[in-house]
Amino acid sequence: MVRVPSPVTNVLHRIRRVPRALARPGRRPPAPALGLAPQPRPWVRAAGLVAVVVLGAWLGLLVVGNVHVPVGPMNTTMTLRPSVTGGTKINISPLGALQLDSHIAPVRLDVNVDQLDPERSQALVDHPERLSGLQDEVTQDIAHGTADLAVRSCVAVVTGATALGLAVYRRPRRALAAGGLALGLLAASGGTAYATWKPDSVLEPKFSGLLSSAPSLVGDARSIVTEFDVYQKELARLVTNVTKLYDATSTLPAYRPDPTTIRVLHVSDIHLNPASWKIIASLVEQYQVDVIVDSGDTMDHGSAAENGFLDPIEDLGAPYVWVRGNHDSRVTQRYLTGLKNVHVLDDGRATTIAGLRFAGIGDPQFTPDRSEKTGAEQSQELAGARLASALRDQRAAGTPVDVAIAHEPSAAREVDGTVPLVLAGHIHHEKTETMKYGTRLRVEGSTGGSGLRAIEGKYPDPIETSILYFDRDTRRLQAWDSIELGGLGLTTAEVSRHIPKENQPGAPTSPSPSSPGSSRTPSDRPSSPAP
Partner of 122 at 20 to 30 A CA spacing, among 3, 191, 223, 374? Predict the structure, then answer.
């Protein structure tokens, strides 16, 4: 018989005891060896790698992902930034910023105008003939700067992702994988931006900053439409406009609108906010407004004691067209009728001002307590029907109306097909739509920031108004600028340019709702307003 050494016997004895020990209640199985630890799932590893890549690429762009580019007489900094919506942002300190919906991609192009170079600026002043070639020079500078930015961004993204990957994983192969994935993501983002690039985005810029500089930076509606070949150069035109702002005296240039354009300032729902008159007067001067249209609710309770609030209208610097809102009483209407330079429209009455023919109707409801009366919707529809009838009579008489005005959108919808444009208010936020029979409905927000009731909420309501541009020959709407100012206690300003589709370059011409043969008969009218 072979004798087994005692150490081996002890080991075998312990192995035989392991199953019995595991069978005893309250005992836990021994922990597995380190080499047998469960590995994380593949999707967890992939998500971690993507997080490292995105964070590293972002850090790389923040540190070195920008280029300093001389653009014409200016020194600028171009940067790529991660973004959900994409687009281009041009920061023009201290005037504000222009935002362009130029592309859809997870990266945004930021262009910061750092300063005006004194020597290059003085050269332009001494040799003004060089301004004619400034556009081409700016275009070339931007092209070179974009190419340099693309190269630098690639280096920044790959370096940042690789460095962070090495710090996290401590494995060169993982770090190189992170850098390669970052380069792939950047290439995909660049391809998406190229595929979705919209050169005509400069037609509808969004400006935020000092309100006084908005007309100069956003541009003139007439020239944007007719000189589309110039605006195809994207940023070049905008940068040229910025150059003009920084003249030798460092003052903003005077706004010189196209003489073939009629400018209408649309206000609504002032609700006794005295600050509105100063804002309106400033806009009239800045944009050289020809006509002011107020679509109602100028007052809050419509009492005779409030009538003194209306006196500044006489000194606003432009004719004032007004229709009654549900917070304006007949007392308010009679008082306004007696003020100079005010044109009160009601029951379909029409008047021609600055080459445009307006017609309007007052709100049939008087509800200063904001109550809902029985049959309110039906009364609005009936008022809209009376206005539509008056518009058809005007057309039959050979004096077609260009712009109709009602306070509530439900009344304004009833004139669809009888006029090219109808203006309304009441709902305290702007809205624009083209209705079934071709009439465009433009609803204005509250130019008074909802008045004193704005302090009832946590955040103040913005002050909203708009500048409407009309062609002086056709009397059709060309474009409009939506203007939004911060509410009580805020000082922000934002201007957005909008151009109707039919006015976009190359768009087919559509028949006018006010043209002969396009009017609706009573049987064509919908039985109820569109939602």
Answer: 223
Torsion, CA 145, CA 150, CA 151, CA 157, rounded to 10: 140
User: How far is C-alpha 499 from the geometric centre of its chain's CA atoms?
Assistant: 13
Q: How many CA atoms lie within 13 A of 206 on its CB side?
A: 9
467, two tokens: 């500048």
Count Cβ atoms below 10 Å from residue 470 Cβ, excluding itself.
Answer: 27
Residue 207, beta-bridge partner list? 98, 495
**Which has the closest alpha carbon to 417: 527, 528, 524, 295?**
524
Q: What residues have CB less than 8 Å from 208, skipping those under 6 apart?
A: 96, 97, 99, 492, 493, 494, 495
Q: Point out the least confidently predicted range of 222-236, 369-383, 414-428.
A: 222-236
- Tell me how far apart the alpha carbons of residues 444 and 323 are, in angstroms, rounded to a whole number: 14
Q: Are strands 206-209 and 493-498 parallel, antiparallel or unpaired?
A: antiparallel
- Separation of alpha carbons 282 and 169, rounded Å: 60
Q: What is the pLDDT of residues 163-222, one digit of tens each?
A: 888 888 888 888 888 888 888 888 888 788 778 877 666 667 776 665 555 676 566 655
Select from 429, 400, 434, 402 the least CA-distant residue to 416: 434
65-79, 195-209, 250-264, 514-528: least confidently modelled range: 514-528
Residues in the chain, overall count? 531
Preceding omega of 94 cis (within 30 degrees of 0): yes
Strand ordering across the sheet containing 421-424: 350-353, 356-360, 403-405, 421-424, 440-443, 431-434
| Beta-sheet pairing, 261-267 with 291-294 | parallel
Alpha-carbon gap, residue 243 to 264, rounded angstroms:
28
In degrees and rounded to multiples of 5, residue 480 shows phi and psi of -150, 150
Q: Does this model's pTM top 0.85?
A: no
3-state class of 130 per DSSP? helix
Portions of the chain given CATH number 3.60.21.10: 233-503
Burial 47-79 (b: 16+ CB within 10 A, else e): eebeebbbebbbbbbeeebbbebebbbbbbbbb
Indicate the residue type of 219: G
Q: Distance between CA atoms of 428 and 360, rounded to whole angstroms?
A: 20
Instruction: Report phi then psi at 288, rounded to 5.
Output: 50, 60
The residue written with tokens 């002011």 in the block is 292
* Token couple for 414: 């009833």
